UniProtKB/TrEMBL annotation:
Pfam families: Abhydrolase_1. This is Proline iminopeptidase. GO terms for cellular component: membrane. Residues 31-266 form the AB hydrolase-1 domain. The keyword Chloroplast does not apply. Keywords: Hydrolase. The keyword Calcium does not apply. One of its GO terms (biological process) is proteolysis. It comes from the Eukaryota. Belongs to the peptidase S33 family.
Length: 287
């Protein structure tokens, strides 16, 4: 593996983001991949780092804590417009005209918005366990956590999570352990989700009370022309297979990979197959 560079990068509005760039090699220029983490206000760059570090022999892999997450500034705005500008700032900071964009779960929605607006800047798109319609996701996720027999939840607290009405960081911290099993395939309750956690309830609240009610790219998917890999776990109850089937059916140059033994995170549940699938896509469609 080539060098790993950890940096604090200033955005155009003065906010500082915590960034890690893997595979940087001044002697051998490599294409850039930017990976966007899931769950703003909860998950950190450690999640996409774990998923995509294996590519650093062939790519420069850039991961970052989104604003309001991890070690980045807890400063808004947290809109998708702002996320998109941040991604473009990081693209320019890394010196790339075109790049591969990858997103997991909520990060995938930001990637879809980016691809709809700036597809000409992409050489590839990787979407993992994501969705196209915010309200549909909110209702699906809430229904899943309230009806799954494995879970014993505080109903009012889960309603606050999925509608963006958390009281404070402690409220968020108490809500997430209640639902961990729902992210894993049957018979496996060892979700890795919270090993990446850093609770910032204000970020989560904005994502689900402002961004998600406005997010809907269903009718714009046909306009995404970049080669796209769509990944989903067969047992994902938060973003079920039908969500990814819709994406793959609607984006012209796309392929769908269903991981039969995975839940919400195929990169962790079936890591070897995930790495093989991603590398084959990048080798045949991007490199």
């Amino acid at each position: 593996m080539a060098g790993i560079q950890t940096s604090t990068v200033q955005m155009d509005d003065g906010v500082h983001l915590h960034v890690k760039l893997m595979g940087n090699d001044e002697k051998r220029p490599k294409p850039l991949l930017i990976a966007v983490h899931a769950a703003p206000g909860l998950v950190t760059l450690a999640e996409p780092e774990a998923a995509f570090a294996f590519l650093s022999d062939n790519f420069r892999v850039l991961v970052f804590d989104g604003r309001g997450s991890g070690e980045s500034d807890i400063t808004g705005s947290y809109t998708h417009d702002r996320w998109i500008r941040d991604i473009d700032n990081l693209r320019r900071w890394a010196g790339a005209e075109k790049f591969v964009l990858a997103g997991h779960s909520y990060g995938g929605t930001i990637c879809l918005d980016y691809a709809v607006r700036h597809g000409d800047r992409l050489s590839g798109l990787i979407l993992r366990n994501t969705w196209t319609h915010g309200i549909q996701l909110m209702m699906t996720a809430l229904a899943a956590v309230l009806t799954d027999p494995r879970l014993k939840v505080d109903v009012a607290r889960q309603l606050r999570v999925w509608t963006g009405a958390l009281r404070d960081d402690r409220d968020y911290e108490e809500a997430m352990p209640e639902i961990l099993p729902i992210y894993s395939p049957p018979g496996d309750s060892s979700s890795q989700m919270l090993q990446f956690a850093a609770y910032h309830s204000a970020t989560q609240n904005f994502a689900f009370n402002h961004n998600m009610p406005r997010f809907d790219v269903r009718h714009q998917l046909k306009d995404i022309k970049v080669p796209t890999l769509v990944i989903v776990g067969r047992h994902d109850l938060i973003t079920p297979v039908v969500f990814s089937e819709e994406i793959a059916r609607s984006i012209p140059d796309s392929s769908l990979a269903i991981f039969e033994h995975s839940g919400h995170n195929p990169a962790g549940d079936e890591s070897q197959k995930f790495q093989k699938t991603v590398l084959e896509f990048l080798t045949t469609s991007v490199l």
